[in-house]
């Protein structure tokens, strides 16, 4: 059985929710250290990243990987797939929807089969499955 892979990100926050700000660091890859703040999340996108943008990036990546594998298993490996994920956040409600949009170059597949395999990939993508509803545990340590 393969060894589980654990990835890590760390957020440092300074101040209260509404006037504070912070950074999120992608620790495992070291690929980014990104600014985060409430205003970007709830008032105007674009000034910093948000949890929803990070979820969208993870979801688009996972889905595309799953889709490429299912297309290969279908006998129609893709040349190129481009996926975007739009994650909607509403203050007081939370995340209210995710829309995946994919287009691709896949020789030898019909539009109907492309849509069918895309739907299957959406169902089998591990991030899609996690976003349905998962048990969440936490270990909190006061430093």
From TrEMBL:
It comes from the Bacteria. It holds the Pfam family OsmC. PANTHER family: OSMOTICALLY INDUCIBLE FAMILY PROTEIN. This is Peroxiredoxin.
